[in-house]
Fold this protein.
Amino acid sequence: MTLLQLEGVSVRFGERAVGYALDRVDLAVAEHEIVCVLGPSGSGKSTLLRVVAGLQPVSGGRVVLGGADQAGVPVHRRGVGLMFQDHQLFPHRDVGGNVAFGLRMRGLARTSYEAQVAELLELVGLPGAQRRAVASLSGGEQQRVALARALAPSPRLLMLDEPLGQLDRGLRERLVVELQGLFSRLGTTVLAVTHDQGEAFALADRVVVMRDGRIAQTGTPLEVWQRPASEFVARFLGFENVVPATVSGRAAATAWGRIPVPEGSPEGPHQLLVRPSGVVLAAAGLPCEVVARTFRGTHVSLRLRPEAGPQLEAECGLAGAPAVGDRVAVTFSPAEVVVLKADTRRDTP
Ligand code: ADP
Ligand code: MG
């Protein structure tokens, strides 16, 4: 069952703006699905959430929630919860007062929501914190309170805008795992946006990559990671081994020499991606010099200067990793090669 459907949604700020903040975006979110919108700053992520919440009028297209067109439906009647990056708890209310905010707004009596507040605080891992002052909480705890507050009115769609952006890495990684468990237990439908691919991949059932107000790719985290659709997506995910190539049959001619490609790869001129794990140290192959070496915990990441072509990123095991200045040879493993499609950029307004 589709809960949210965006049909050709466009947003343009100002008559004379050259581009669109959102340009004919089509997106469907199923009930109980967790969708993460991922993209660089300025790609339209927050605008997308604001449109769904009813905080931003559209220039074109429509937003359908639970089968009903939302044109003219005000924010408070849409039944969506929105949690921003700067979660802005009410500083003069205690934790319980913050969580109860949306329930009180509905005119519920204290006795009817006290049990619910206690339950929500337990859910987010802060049992019994009702009377604590907001100022006494750590950043991560404040984030949990903000989440409990957003969940309290039981929104049919929970939207999170860079929810963990302010937190340091370790805490973020832990919270992502907790959130994922929480949402799947509650069956919450979630539309989250982030510029952090790790966060998106850990949380999402489905990832939507945005560029300049358009959807560049959508798929499961695994699909997007394994088969980035374009050079933009590949580079945004942090892959650096991208070169122009001419594909013919099972091989491609590149500045790094001939590289084997997976069966069924499109023929002709394309950009080609080799994931670092597909650059394999071998007895014979493309000669390279090791220019940098970084220990990554489970493997060693190498930066190589080949005798021809741009620098290469490679991965190797901890044992026997070459040193900076060493001369090595590499071959390419076709399973880690992706022939990228040309970036599809519509030029018509
Ligand atoms: P993101 O959340 O991905 O960083 P936004 O949705 O905030 O991106 O912004 C998308 C584009 O729209 C950007 O180019 C931004 O400058 C522009 N934009 C956003 N809000 C406004 C506004 N209120 N007025 C004018 N331009 C805006
Ligand atoms: Mg934003």
User: Anything to note?
Assistant: Residues 243-340 form a domain with the OB fold (Dihydrolipoamide Acetyltransferase, E2P) fold (CATH 2.40.50.140). The chain has two domains: 2-231, 243-340. The two ends are 33 Å apart (CA to CA). The first helix runs from residue 45 to 53.
